[in-house]
Amino acid sequence: NNNYVVPSGTNEFNENYTIDSSSGKNDINVVLGVYRSGLQALDAFAVNIITRPDTAGQLIDNHVIPNAVLLADGLYTLPSGISVPTGQREATFNLTIDRNKLLADPDTYGGKTLVLAVGITEPSKYELNNSLSTTIVIVKGWETLQ
User: What's the whole-model pTM score?
Assistant: First the structure.
């Protein structure tokens, strides 16, 4: 599967998120990225970044992810795209979740697992592997992430 569970890892050196507590923001920054495989030359390329709420909604509706709720628009930000420079295979970006807004709506989000399907589209070069172009971000225990 393409599930990306947050938090992962066992310590600060292999976690897949950070907390931005500057100016009282309290944002959860989930680290995501793109990677180009293959043996061709490492030319620069770019992809668009999108969400697929229908994909996440199906997983929630079918109880594939228990006790889950879709991470709604307005609670997160994503860049619209990402570029990988010449000579590189990968680049990272953040899914930024507004933890303060989540905490302000405990009836909807309290004790729930947050789910968002993040995809890439329209590569400027190379082809996408459709089976790997969407990641299901699953944020568990977000109330206690520090």
Answer: 0.91
